[in-house]
Write a structure and sequence with these properties.
Helices cover about 30% and strands about 30% of the residues. The protein is built from 4 helices and 7 strands; from the N terminus they run E-H-H-E-E-H-E-E-E-H-E. Strand 2 and strand 3 form a beta hairpin. Helix 1 crosses helix 2. The longest helix is centred in the middle third of the chain and has 16 residues.
């Protein structure tokens, strides 16, 4: 068995589906499956990668109907600084300047460009409240 081909059970595990689903996808022509000289079903890693990418993209196109984050800031992307791995994205949302650190891949997948509308969703487990000092002492 070549290193670039894996058994159907391994492919199913990587794809997060059952072996029966992989077999159904083969029958539907959605997934190309080869046979070893012994007749064993084998799937190329390229096919698994292709399906994973398709499924990830399809999942990201689904509309969000509900979420637990309450802090949503619609605004405009004003700055993107990106290298090979990481990116800084700045969004001006009303009087608020929000900065997000994300992967460069996420910037590309979202198709972010300066001047584009975007919504920043903020969810924090900790909120720190500070009280500014008064001009007069409180004594």
């Amino acid at each position: 068995m070549g290193e670039d081909r894996i058994r159907v059970g391994q492919a199913a595990e990587m794809l997060g589906v059952t072996v029966e689903t992989v077999r159904r996808w083969e029958a539907e022509g959605r997934l190309k499956v080869d046979r070893s000289t012994g007749g064993q079903r084998l799937v190329s890693l390229a096919e698994v990668t292709r399906l994973l990418a398709e499924r990830r993209k399809a999942g990201s196109e689904r509309a969000t109907v509900a979420g637990s984050a309450r802090n949503r800031f619609p605004g405009i992307v004003t700055r993107i600084e990106k290298d090979r791995v990481a990116a800084v994205v700045e969004v001006l949302a009303g009087p608020h300047r929000l900065v997000s650190l994300m992967t460069a891949e996420a910037v590309d997948e979202l198709g972010l460009v300066v001047g584009q509308e975007a919504v920043c969703v903020v969810k924090a487990t900790n909120v720190i409240v500070e009280v500014p000092s008064s001009r007069e002492s409180r004594g």
